[in-house]
Design a protein that fits this description.
It is a single chain. The strands form four sheets. Strands 1, 16, 17, 18, 21 and 22 form a six-stranded mixed β-sheet that branches. A six-stranded antiparallel beta barrel has the order 2-11-14-13-12-15. It is an alpha+beta fold and 377 residues long. A hairpin with an 8-residue loop joins strand 12 and strand 13 (248-255). Helix 2 (99-134) packs antiparallel against helix 3 (140-172). The chain has five helices and 22 strands. The chain starts with a helix and ends with a helix. It has three domains: 46-62 and 208-376, Beta Barrel (Elongation Factor Tu (Ef-tu), domain 3), CATH 2.40.30.170; 68-95 and 175-206, Beta Barrel (OB fold (Dihydrolipoamide Acetyltransferase, E2P)), CATH 2.40.50.100; 98-173, Orthogonal Bundle (Helix Hairpins).
């Protein structure tokens, strides 16, 4: 048994050497394969004229608000509008009981008829006295007294006519009409109530088109805003929704006459057309105030910008289809495009989709954004 083991040992070592000798040859035949390129979307660094803007926040507000009150006393007989109704200037809102004003107007007209008759009598007496004076039958004092009587009668008639005009105006005030075009709020006083002149608000009307926007900016922008606004009215993009889609164009109207010392901000007022009612009083909005344009600026898609510990950077695609990280300096940024002041050159390509799979030196294959998004998923 022991002699058989001794005979098999050399054969075992010979087989082991054969396996060891063959293994390097097999490993040399299996060379490691290169990883496939990463699918990405890319965009060129463009050169264009871009606006220099100030990002701000603000609120939409009505440019013109009127608290409607009664100008005469009376009972409300009828309401012609409802809560939240759009009205045109001059449109009826409320009717008051006009009977007392009609009766007063009739009395004033009767007084005028009476005083006109007295005036006619005074003129006739004056004319007779003039004839008597020419015949030296009457004295000058008698004529002077009749002239004074005629003048007093004329003044009375003039006062009657003024009272009639006032009475007609008071009668008109019994129908309350919309002083401006806008939208009504809640009706505060209902029919059957008796109101006094200028006592209590009946309804509030807010102008809806155009709409004003109140915004604040840092006092550091004051000089630039004043300088550019003096050349031509500045324009704004107003975003009334969170998606920042389809901004509303507005025009800067005015600057406040003082900077708020507590906040260090300046209040501005702009105006925007609002035919489709996208802006609503009190609505919170974001704005971009355009100051001027910067010519031949370098811009890249905002989605290409990445943020690292050292600041913003992008992946730049080199000529051999590999990528490198490039730190950049951002001048201005919005939802779609970002102004780059240093770090890239015009014509270079930056990765816009697929950055999560990249690192310096990785090969990439440029595909359509939709394909790259699919690859990302």
């Amino acid at each position: 048994m022991e002699s058989a083991s001794r005979r098999l040992a050399p054969l075992f070592f010979l087989g082991l050497l054969t396996l060891v000798g063959c293994s390097p040859e097999k490993s040399e035949n299996k060379a490691p394969s290169a990883p496939p390129p990463v699918l990405v979307a890319a965009a060129p660094v463009a050169k264009k004229n871009i606006p220099l803007t100030i990002q701000a926040m603000g609120n939409a507000e009505s440019c013109h608000t009127v608290a409607v009150k009664a100008r005469v006393e009376g009972e409300i007989l009828k309401t012609h509008v409802t809560d939240g109704q759009e009205v045109q200037q001059g449109q009826p809102l409320f009717d008051l009981d006009d009977r007392p004003y009609q009766y007063r107007l009739k009395q004033l007209k009767a007084n005028l008829d009476r005083d006109l008759a007295l005036l006619e009598n005074a003129r006739t007496r004056e004319q007779r006295q003039v004839v008597l004076n020419k015949q030296n039958i009457s004295s000058e004092e008698a004529l002077a007294g009749l002239v004074a009587s005629r003048q007093a009668a004329e003044a009375t008639v003039a006062a009657d006519r003024a009272a009639i005009s006032d009475g007609e105006l008071q009668l008109q005030f019994t129908r309350i009409t919309a002083p401006i075009t806008g939208m009504t709020g809640r009706i505060l006083i209902q029919p059957g109530n008796i109101i006094k002149a200028n006592d209590g608000i009946l309804v509030q009307i807010q102008q809806m088109d155009p709409m004003c926007i109140s915004l604040t900016v840092a006092e550091a922008h004051l000089a630039a805003i004043r300088a550019n606004h003096a050349k031509s009215p500045l324009t704004l993009e107003v975003h009334p929704n969170r998606e920042n889609l389809n901004p509303v164009a507005a025009t800067l109207l005015s600057l406040d006459n003082a900077v708020d010392r507590q906040t260090g901000t300046l209040r501005l007022k702009a105006q925007a057309p609002n035919p489709d009612r996208r802006l609503w009083p009190g609505l919170f909005v974001t704005l971009a105030l355009k100051l001027t344009e910067r010519p031949d600026s370098l811009v890249i898609p905002t989605r290409a910008v990445q943020t690292g510990s050292a600041g913003p950077f992008v992946y730049v695609i080199k000529s051999d289809k590999s990528v490198e990280t490039r730190p950049i300096t951002i001048g201005n940024e919005d939802r779609e495009e970002t102004l780059v002041t240093s770090g890239v050159a015009a014509g270079e390509s930056v990765v816009t989709v697929g950055q999560w799979r990249l690192k310096p030196g990785v090969k990439v294959e440029i595909t359509q954004p939709a394909d790259a998004e699919q690859e990302k998923k």
